[in-house]
Amino acid sequence: MAMVSELPHRDEVWLVSLDPTPGAEIRKTRPCLIVSPDEMNRNLRTLMVAPMTTVLRPYPTRVAVRFQGKSGQVALDQMRAVDRQRLVRKLGTITDTAATSASAVLLEMFSR
């Protein structure tokens, strides 16, 4: 898999190859939200991503999102670091409202 030349940015959705994955991790190539800050994205080969899914779960770590005409969730509980080699292509950007919601949940997840 070739590394994409375009620089990924926070709140963008990219198609990411997540396989191979062990255990209960979300599998396959799927849309993922870039959650790492742009400074990290510019300087490291790894990015923090959260997979998106159309399977709705009532978890507080899931953020509702509508993207490309489909309703789904950003699975922040499945967030992981991936090498840029796993990026397939950019799909778009989520709305400001969804981005704000995702940031709020991340802050809550990692606050004491």
Features:
112 residues, SH3 type barrels, seven-stranded antiparallel β-sheet
Unreliable runs, pLDDT <50, ≥5 residues?
A: none
Q: Looking at CATH, which topology would you report?
A: SH3 type barrels
What number of domains? Answer: 1
pLDDT averaged over residues: 92
Q: Report the biggest beta sheet as strand number plus sense, adding barrel if it closes.
A: 7 strands, antiparallel
Radius of gyration: 13 Å
Helix content: 10-25%
**Count of β-strands:** 7
In angstroms, what separates the terminal alpha carbons? 39 Å
Task: Give the name of the CATH architecture.
Answer: Roll
Query: What is the CATH C-level name?
Result: Mainly Beta
User: Could you give the order of the helices and strands?
Assistant: EEHEEEEEH
Oligomer: single chain
| Coarse structural class | alpha+beta
Percent of residues in beta strands?
35-45%
Shape: globular
Number of continuous helical runs: 2
Structure, explained:
With 112 residues, the protein is α+β, with helices and mostly antiparallel strands. The protein has a single domain, classed as Roll (SH3 type barrels), CATH 2.30.30. It has helices at 38-43, 96-110; strands spanning 12-17, 29-34, 46-53, 62-67, 70-75, 80-83, 87-93. Strands 1, 2, 3, 4, 5, 6 and 7 form a 7-stranded antiparallel sheet that branches. A hairpin with a 2-residue loop joins strand 4 and strand 5. The longest helix has 15 residues, at 96-110. The mean pLDDT is 92.
